[in-house]
Fold:
Amino acid sequence: MPFDPTTRPLTPAEARVLATLMEKARTVPDSYPMSLNALVTGCNQKTSRDPVMNLSESEVQEALDSLKLLTLAFETSGNRTTRWEHNFQRGVGVPEQSAVLLGLLMLRGPQTAGELRINAERWYRFADISSVEAFLDELQERSAEKGGPLVTLLPRAPGAREPRWAHLLCGAVDTRASVPAPASGGASPALQARVEALESQVAALQATVQRLCSELGIDPAMSPPGQD
Structure:
């Protein structure tokens, strides 16, 4: 039986951890599967996240343990560090394109079909907006035998040109709180894309350092000689 959010919805922390695993598997594959430290950093990014969260290591580990019980994530053995992978598509029972849309909705909050197509560029290239809408419609009309609907179309906000979609993996959505928040600092899409690219590079470098430290038997948290 696929994952059914009406029976056991995800918590916000579980959704963030799961979606971060999904994101990094596609955008920085060299650092995937992810260590706990890298996953905490990814969950608490300041860009491409709505809402911005500040999860502790223990909160992320607790979310991982719960996702493992739901068969949505699993451990993989890495030299001396436990690493984690997601099992979203199989656990929820959706195709790749639907998994991409759900992952983006979990990370960035409600979005229009056009926004989802743009934000999906580094995950999956949809041919056009109608393709995005087709998969969203399929997710909204999902039968009870498959676990029920996984997205919903929100009422159009005052002044908005298009309605936005929200995921239902954390349970029913309060449509009264569906008005989008203004963009932080008015950052342009180009600037935000550059920041995201830099964050991905940093995450990849961190993963490389952790892997090298594990191979050499060095604790990455130790201070270099002479800096105590």
Q: What stands out?
A: Residues 72 and 87 are 5 Å apart (CA to CA).
